[in-house]
Amino acid sequence: MTRVLRDIRNNLVEFVRTFGAFQLFFLRLLRHSPAILGTRFGLVIKQVYNTGALSLVIIMVCGLFVGGVLALQAYSNMAVFNAEDWTGVAAHQVLVKELGPVMTAILFAARAGTALTSEIGLMKATDQLSAMEMMAVNPVRRELVPRFLGGVIAMPFLAAIFSAVGLFGAHVVGVELFQVDVGSFWQQIQLIAESEDVNEGIIKSVVFGFAASVIAVWEGYNAMPTAEGVGRATTRTVVITAISILVFDFMITAALI
Amino acid sequence: MGDYSENLIEIHDLKYSRGHRAIFDGLNLTIKRGEITALMGPSGTGKTTLLRLITRQLIPQQGAIFVDGLDISTLSQSELYQLRQRFGMLFQNGALLTDLSVFENVAFPLREHTKLSNRLIRHIVLTKLHAVGLRGAADMMPAQLSGGMARRVALARAMVMDPEILIYDEPFVGLDPISLGVIVRLVRRLNDALGITSIVVSHDVEEIATVADRSFLLSDGKVAASGSPDELRTANSELVRQFMHGMADGPVAFHFDAPGYEEQLLGRDTE
Q1: Beta-strand relationship, B197-201 and B214-219
Q2: Cβ B57–A131 below 8 Å, yes or no?
Q3: In a 3-state reduction of DSSP, which class is residue A199?
Q4: Which of A56, A229, B14, B176 is deepest in the core (most CB within 10 A)?
Q5: Interface predicted TM-score of the whole assembly (ipTM), two decimals
């Protein structure tokens, strides 16, 4: 019994220690960010392309189907009350406030986060980060910060694109498939949706962008420099990002209601 | 800058352990200016660790390391980076940046530390690549290079800032005889032509004998022997003889620490 308690205590201490180190790491990234944005914007642009532009296809395809399925569900449930015109509103609210940012962040972790983690982990395993240190170049500043910023910048745009494409998917299902009147489909959205709804989505996508990017970069930087270690770090990126995104989502939603 | 002295690097009573394992236990060592110094020793004696300590990628638990009169443990981050600009280091596998071409790899330190024009950078990079015989590979990516070529590119990169000290970590491992000859000659030529100080970590006794001015044989966390390659070859110590002549068993045991053979095989419990 005492052994179990001791194990629990050790794990707790270890968790607190790691979490503290993680926060310091986050502050370190933030501290270097202004300088990199000011003087090495080209490096950031390259990472926006790597994390953002290369995730576009998966984001758009997923957005289309998520929007479509939302319209399917909304239509079949609204039809009970003869409120088919509300299909668009239902899809819009769910997309913009919830599924847009959340799904994008999780897809981002799977597509871009894993790439960031394994890239940085492999650079570490092949001594590239040490080589930079030896060339008097700070690898955190030169390699990690641009990747972090690239993710932070790309995420809100990806979430917006996800929601927009999703809405198009809802339109296709609602208007083209179920013959909801196109005028009332869009007019209801205009009537009901407030700018606060969009703001909520934007706030979430920005927060998720920071979270997903810093987790991916952290996991790569702290990966064991072996094939197995990098593999494990990549898995952890997806798992930890997904969990923290859902927790953050709950907290933000609760705070804004 | 410290006072001019013959000793470029001095290590006093260095202690460093990883976990419970002591890697260095009171190591003293001096590296002289302008010479090629070899650090030799059986695998696992911490040769690479020593390089990382000298360049403060690792921090020792005890002892002091002076580079050109500076106690490196007292340097701030920016002073350390200033000092590192005087170093060039060749990593075991080259450690080229895989997302940059050969040309950009060699240009990397220049682009990071200087404001030279593209024209001048091009000129310097091509000169350095020419010196290692790989001017023609400038546009290739690191993944396309053979091991020997990657190491030569890394060497060009290590010397692009005209360092005073060049550090080689196992430069001879895994090369074919031709590449090996090329690297050995390059090490010697660079040291003499540029008037730099070289530190070579290796366990290739033959190659070291042809290039090194002075060798240190590390064992059990200390310097077991030192001197010119010839002196080492004729030394009396058991360990030095075992190492220099590549004998399987001796002071460095062939067997890693293990429980008794008979007990382990026959499953008898030890008391």
Answers
A1: unpaired
A2: no
A3: helix
A4: B14
A5: 0.81
